[in-house]
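user: can you give me the structure for this one chain? tokens are fine.
assistant: on it. calling the predictor now.
[tool input]
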Amino acid sequence: MPKYDPDYFKERFSDLYKEIENREETVEIDGVRTSAEQGKKAAERKKDAGPNVIDFIRLCDTEDEVVEIINYMEEEGKINSQYAKKLRKQLIRKGLSSFGPKREPGEYSFIDKDSE
């Protein structure tokens, strides 16, 4: 097995190296699937659940709109206060683009295209 060379990694993948060193862009793993079938079922459940707070944030044009979405989702009990705080912090530190590319209204569809 080749030996890990941090200097080489830092030079070749500088942004990734910074994220790893600063523990940025971490992703919370809430489950592990051991079969493809379990993964498919989980994805279907998520699809059926409708858009989440990030889906709505990605529709926003301004940071004020993002704050409004986060506040609303928190007040309605759709997200807990800890997650709302995390989203606000992300917005301040990394900006609107850190939530993913902008979506246009209508991109998220509840209708299965195959069933039409």
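assistant: here you go. Residues 47-111 form one domain. Residues 81-94 form the longest helix (14 residues).
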